[in-house]
Amino acid sequence: MENAKEKEYILSVLARNRSGVLLRIAGLFSRRCYNILSIVAAETENSQYSRILIVVSGDDRIVRQVDKQLNKLVDIEQVDVLPREGAVVREHILLKVERTLQNSERLIEIANVFRANILNVEKDSMILELTGDAATINSFIEMCNPYHVLKILRTGAMAMMK
Is 7-82 in CATH node 3.30.70.260? Predict the structure, then answer.
């Protein structure tokens, strides 16, 4: 990060489950040239609402401004900036890696070390699944890279207050 005061913030947005709400949120960020590092959206326990978790990088001023602007949008019920120390934060990854006779055992060892699930084994590939914090996910990818990662599907941060 360029600025020492910049850090990552997790915004938890409760929105009415209506078409176009995600587009309006993305438009707000785009118009102000704010970058979204990750975004995860899904229906809540109440099907009338969706929870949208947005990870942004910036300083306190930018996050306060984004918070205020989000609250002005139609269909937004609540915006919370989640403190990482007061929240459970997890990401999820599906990783497809090239499998050979030479590396198969090593891939299983890596999966076991990280407590990753082996979801699929083919003659020439293996699909692994892992849930954890960003550092764990990044380490897992780094350990698998020498074995030729074919595809990565990764969620952004999902977070819930403790």
Answer: yes
